[in-house]
Amino acid sequence: MAIFQQIAFILVSIAAIFLFAKKAGQIRRNILLGRDTVPAGESGERWRNVLLLAFGQKKMFRNPLVAVMHFIIYAGFIIINIEVLEIGLDGVFGTHRLFAGPLGFLYSWLINSFEFLAVGVLTVCIIFLIRRNVLKIRRFLSKDLNGWPRSDANYILLTEIILMSLFLLLNASDTLLQQRGVGHFGTHLTGNFAFSSILHPLLNGAGNETLEAIERTCWWLHILGIFAFLNYLPYSKHLHIILAFPNAYYAPVEPEGKMHNMPDIQKEVLYAMQPELAPTGDAAAAPHGKFGAKDVADLNWKNLLDAYSCTECGRCSAACPANITGKLLSPRKIMMSTRDRLEEVGRNINANKQFNDDGKSLLHDYITEEELRACTTCNACVEECPVSISPLDIILQLRRYLVMEESNAPQEWNTMFSSIENNFAPWKFSPDDRDQWTMD
Amino acid sequence: MKVSSMAEMMMNGESPDILFWVGCAGSFDQRAQKITKAFASILQKTGIRFAILGKEEACTGDPARRSGNEFLFQMMAYNNIQVLNGYGIKKIVTTCPHCFNTLKNEYPELGGNYEVIHHTTLLQQLIDEGKIKMKEGGSFKGKRITYHDSCYLGRANDIYEAPRKVLETLDAELVEMKRCRSKGLCCGAGGAQMFKEEEKGDTRINWDRTSEALETGSAFIASACPFCNTMLTDGVKKNEKEAGVAVLDIAELVAASME
Predict the structure, then answer these.
(1) Cα–Cα 20 to 30 A to A402, which of A154, A366, B111, B248?
(2) In angstroms, rounded to a whole number, what is the distance separating the alpha carbons of residues B187 and B208?
């Protein structure tokens, strides 16, 4: 019997890890469809961001109460993984509580602290479910989340509640079996744990066999749940638990106000002004890429990493002046659209071995002109994002495509362009009057 | 007001301590001209030798770049950098956060390397150095003032304290709006919105922001950007509060309070 469980466990683990690795590989491939970009700044500053923003969740603390609750889930998730390591080794070797022997009294202390975390996580998940579904919080009510995204968020919270409950029930049945000295349970005496012992009265009525069955079922459901969750991640907004870390590392360390330069255009202007510098022959005929971005592959890979890192919390949109005043623009939706389109392109590549033109693009089909035109480039979305995403960078690249490739600008902007070109100011004043104010 | 241009200084074999980059709003917009004059008068009073580019100044290209017209931006940047480098400019002060951001952050990789400071930072330095002294019992003593953070000064360049430190010297009662500093709400003008009608929505951004400023019960809304100034002034008018509430630039507040 035990050997069957071991074989089953090993096969399930291999399948779960294989499936996850395959999907992770596809996501990596999708991200690398983006233009290459070299992150500016030194790696020291980037590591500092990883520590402060990703590990320390600094931006979350702009709202301290929510930050503490989120931190409990995060700490619980990471620390309880030590327990998962033991579960994995037990599964492979057919052992039971492998770490109990070597760790001695420390083991009971560890499991006890895991139980505190588990109860913490469970409580916060329930509060978060209430926040999302009962309290009227604008960023959770938003139509951005209609359909799958709203369910996704609830599924994640429910799964965590189930996993934590299984963990507690597992400990409860185990410690009860220990007390009764049943089989191998009797040889791993850990003593009762803080919270699972509260469940003992519920289980007391059960016979030893039933209790063993409960223990095994909880053990299996818990680990299968974890494997299922692992494979759910790549399809979910919850992927941020992994990508928040690289995303913090690659976050720009320059002032937020600085826009990316376009060296192609810089050169064209330079050659127009100083023709003697222009290359001749083949070099001159070299075609340039698109100006700005029309589809996901025109964005850079950091933009695409951003899209997969987004957990759709909506802090960006809650701070966006355009969104607050009822405009169509929602920075969160910009990120969600980018990911949706990128996933669509990825599925296209999976099916055809390469991207076959599907007549669609991020611009127009997923993100409309009206959304892009509403942005004031105020950087509120960038400032708010806890995982260092820049919706603004995507907006600006799509705007560049609209104006430079489609000559698509509101009439007032065209007037502004021609004023700047002819009068050197965005309004139609005579350049000769620029110092008029000194005369009065 | 006698203000030297770089061309005049060059001809007289002089060089200024600092170039005052006036910007398009500061040069042409009637309201913003007052900010320009207030700031120039402070520079003159403190004995700083400054010059302007005058007719040789041109738009930095900020609204062109942010609306998506990179070609036009690069053309403006090329010409401006030619002029600035031609005069050997080392240090620039500007009263416009948009010009400030472009000159400071975006010109260096195009070959324009200058020390660029915003006028609020310079004012703070001059106050710290004792070169600007405020009148005893100045016009704003005890008055309630709220400061509106410009996005291109605040979030874009992390300048939150300098304007506030300057305001503290006015002996006024400084009150913050709920959305201030890095959480400050945009006035609605950035990203070339100044030059077009807002997209359709429930309300205008400047109305929303101005209402927040008015809720503080301030007699003065302090700004540090000519575009914010315009947007908030419009918002005050919309609320029919122009009799009791004035939108003033930090430079104007200082100019009116100096000895």
Answers:
(1) B111
(2) 9
Quick check: A404 and B55 CB within 8 A? no
- Domain of B66? 6-124
Could you give the CA distance from residue B9 to residue B28 in angstroms, rounded to a whole number? Answer: 23
- Contact (CB, 8 A) for A60 and A52: no
Regarding whether B144 and B101 lie in a shared domain, the answer is no
Whole-Å CA distances, A99 to A90, A107, A185, A220: 9, 7, 14, 18
Q: Are residues B106 and B145 in the same domain?
A: no
Which positions ≥6 away from A235 have C-beta within 8 Å?
Answer: A23
Which of B103, B124, B145 is where one domain is finished? B124
pTM metric for this prediction: 0.95
User: Do residues B252 and B139 both lie within one domain?
Assistant: yes
Q: Decide if B199 and A328 are in contact by the 8 Å CB cutoff.
A: yes
Average pLDDT of the residues in A45-60: 92
Query: In this structure, what CATH number is given to the domain that contains residue B166?
Result: 3.40.50
Query: Touching check for A426 and chain B: CB below 8 Å?
Result: yes
Q: What is the reported pLDDT for A180? A: 87
DSSP state of A261: P
Are residues B98 and B37 both part of a single domain? yes
* B55 lies in the same domain as B85: yes
| Least confident stretch, A50-59, A386-395, B240-249 | A50-59
Residue of A nearest to B189 (CA): A376
For residue range A138-158, list pLDDT tens digits in order: 999 999 999 999 999 999 999
**Per-residue pLDDT at A1:** 59
Tens of pLDDT, residue by residue over A188-223, are 778 888 899 899 988 888 888 899 999 999 989 989
CA–CA min distance A201, chain B (Å): 51
**For residue A238, is pLDDT > 90?**
yes
DSSP B19: E
Does B108 lie in the same domain as B82?
A: yes
Yes or no: say if B88 and B117 are a contact pair by the CB < 8 Å rule: no
Does A380 contact chain B (CB < 8 Å)?
yes
ipTM confidence: 0.96
C-beta separation of B34 from B64 below 8 A: no
Which percentage of chain A shows pLDDT scores above 70? 98
Residues of B with Cβ-Cβ distance to A418 under 8 angstroms: none
Q: Are residues B168 and B208 in the same domain?
A: yes
Q: Give how many domains chain B has, as a whole number.
A: 2
Minimum mean pLDDT range among A222-231, A354-363, B15-24, B25-34: A222-231
Instruction: Indicate the residue among B124, B147, B167 that finishes a domain.
Output: B124
Min Cα–Cα distance to chain A from B222, Å: 19
